[in-house]
């Protein structure tokens, strides 16, 4: 059985934190991070360039003067969808090529008779129609403006935030995408990102376990 879990939510809501704990606890669990699909230049260019400067990107500059990172066109969503399709085609091969341990008994068995889990994690998961059909379960972590701004101010991205980016671009785009997402037709389970890391993890882990038990 294949099971795909979306962990969406606001920037710095705790998506990666939750995902990293789930990967360790769930069997045969792979992950796709949306952040890996920002439109950057080719690998070699990035490597040589980043020795001296910030990595080059292909992100458009908006009328507000800021690079528009928090829009769906900043991401290579086609490549992201193809990565998910690659996992669906052959989760064992995908796991091996991403350095995920698959237990020996599972390697010998038919993939369909085993549980294989894919977590797809990102801040714009439910705003790209071709991806919606993949999710068996869709979580969304939210935190209020003040807490989000506080956490973001300490975060180091490969490209650091210029002053003012959060209020001019990041938060307004979050509100816009969240509105659009609410009409996307998916049944989304909202998680309160102000709860402790343990509380959020326990809630989601128990929920996934119950669902998987019901499906087997
Ligand atoms: N439940 C939580 N309570 C307090 N801080 C948290 C919580 N979850 C994550 N954090 C912190 O918030 C920051 C962003 O977390 P991260 O998981 O990277 O967010 P995201 O992947 O959603 O951007 C990190 O410093 C992390 O330790
Ligand atoms: O990962 C990067 O290279 C990167 C470069 C520039 C900006 N980002 C920010 O990454 C944010 C989404 O990632 P996250 O983990 O905070 O949900 C989004 O708000 C972007 O503004 C990310």
TrEMBL record:
GO cellular component, one term: cytosol
InterPro entries cross-referenced by the UniProt entry: P-loop_NTPase
Domain of life: Eukaryota
Organism annotation: Danionella cerebrum
Keyword annotations from UniProtKB, A to Z: ATP-binding, Kinase, Magnesium, Metal-binding, Nucleotide-binding, Pyridine nucleotide biosynthesis, Transferase
GO MF annotation: an example: nicotinate riboside kinase activity
SUPFAM superfamilies: P-loop containing nucleoside triphosphate hydrolases
Keyword Endoplasmic reticulum tagged: no
Catalysed transformations (reactions): beta-D-ribosylnicotinate + ATP = nicotinate beta-D-ribonucleotide + ADP + H(+); beta-nicotinamide D-riboside + ATP = beta-nicotinamide D-ribonucleotide + ADP + H(+)
Entry's family note: Belongs to the uridine kinase family. NRK subfamily.
Official protein name in the record: Phosphoribulokinase/uridine kinase domain-containing protein
Pathway: Cofactor biosynthesis; NAD(+) biosynthesis
GO biological process, one term: pyridine nucleotide biosynthetic process
